[in-house]
């Protein structure tokens, strides 16, 4: 076995390691070169902090890593651990996780985080063995929503902001899943909800996906949160959707990505009929 940093390998070797490493995975994530490069760039993954394992000179395992500073803490995210099928359960994953941990220590990382599909018991056992603990349960919610099915709530007062301005809110969720942080949301939009008293009471971070004619085809919501003191509660989800997105009678696909099961918004969405496509656990390790 030989472990190299991704920056020391060719892109072809990295892509091979990724696609072999995720063969038979619970959620299909095979990529071509363009998709792989885009993922590295858009999710802030670092070739210098990511590794590839070679077995018999063949790329056979990969761990992708990104590091950010949030509120004075260095956070490292495991953006994908994949092992070729023939080497699973043979100690390669442990050796790779130890190598990545050494990188985290060298970089002065305070907290290491990752997500794992709840059904992936083998991976969760590995991460627990390496000192990670489950800190949250995440949902992937979706529904096709039309204006006619929403109750006639009054329009919500909002203030549109740039996504990066959300971090100035004292209730911004800096512990949300890595892919749901404003830094990861390319072409994202954001809005702050204003209470009747004129206070900032909540926010949403989202992205519109347009069809070939330029009309909204799908909405991806990355964060949806209210302050603990917010008086905006009853009917808020309906008001958010109708105010921001449903300006016609068309039905729109809405996806809510990696929202905490403990977030009151997720409970309201489920009550509205949103379905959970799959669940993940969020795991952390303090270094």
From TrEMBL:
<dbReference type="InterPro" id="IPR050680">
    <property type="entry name" value="YpeA/RimI_acetyltransf"/>
</dbReference>
<protein>
    <submittedName>
        <fullName>Acetyltransferase (GNAT) family protein</fullName>
    </submittedName>
</protein>
<keyword id="KW-0808">Transferase</keyword>
<dbReference type="GO" id="GO:0016747">
    <property type="term" value="F:acyltransferase activity, transferring groups other than amino-acyl groups"/>
</dbReference>
<feature type="domain" description="N-acetyltransferase">
    <location>
        <begin position="1"/>
        <end position="154"/>
    </location>
</feature>
<keyword id="KW-0012">Acyltransferase</keyword>
<dbReference type="InterPro" id="IPR000182">
    <property type="entry name" value="GNAT_dom"/>
</dbReference>
<dbReference type="Pfam" id="PF00583">
    <property type="entry name" value="Acetyltransf_1"/>
</dbReference>
<dbReference type="InterPro" id="IPR016181">
    <property type="entry name" value="Acyl_CoA_acyltransferase"/>
</dbReference>
């Amino acid at each position: 076995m030989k472990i190299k940093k991704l920056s020391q390998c060719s892109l072809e070797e990295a892509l091979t390691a990724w696609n072999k490493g995720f063969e038979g995975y619970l959620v299909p994530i095979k990529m071509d070169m363009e998709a792989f490069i885009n993922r590295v760039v858009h999710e802030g993954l670092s070739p210098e902090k990511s590794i590839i394992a070679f077995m018999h000179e063949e790329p056979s395992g990969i761990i992708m890593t990104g590091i950010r500073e949030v509120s004075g803490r260095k956070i490292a995210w495991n953006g994908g651990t994949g092992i070729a099928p023939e080497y699973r359960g043979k100690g390669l994953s442990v050796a790779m996780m130890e190598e990545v941990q050494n990188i985290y220590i060298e970089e002065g990382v305070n907290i290491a985080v990752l997500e794992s599909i709840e059904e992936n018991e083998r991976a969760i056992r590995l991460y627990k063995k390496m000192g990670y603990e489950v800190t949250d349960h995440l949902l992937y919610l979706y529904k096709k929503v039309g204006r006619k099915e929403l109750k006639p709530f009054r329009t919500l007062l909002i203030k549109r902001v740039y996504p990066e301005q959300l971090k100035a809110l004292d209730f911004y969720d800096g512990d949300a899943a890595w892919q749901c942080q404003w830094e990861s949301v390319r072409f994202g939009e954001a809005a702050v909800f204003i209470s009747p008293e004129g206070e900032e009471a909540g926010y949403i971070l989202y992205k519109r996906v347009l069809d070939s004619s330029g009309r909204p085809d799908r909405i991806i919501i990355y964060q949806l949160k209210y302050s603990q003191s917010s008086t905006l509660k009853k009917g808020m989800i309906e008001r958010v959707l109708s105010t921001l997105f449903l300006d016609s009678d068309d039905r729109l696909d809405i996806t809510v990505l990696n929202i905490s099961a403990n977030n009151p918004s997720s409970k309201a969405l489920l009550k509205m009929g949103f379905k959970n496509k799959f669940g993940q656990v969020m795991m952390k390790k303090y270094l």
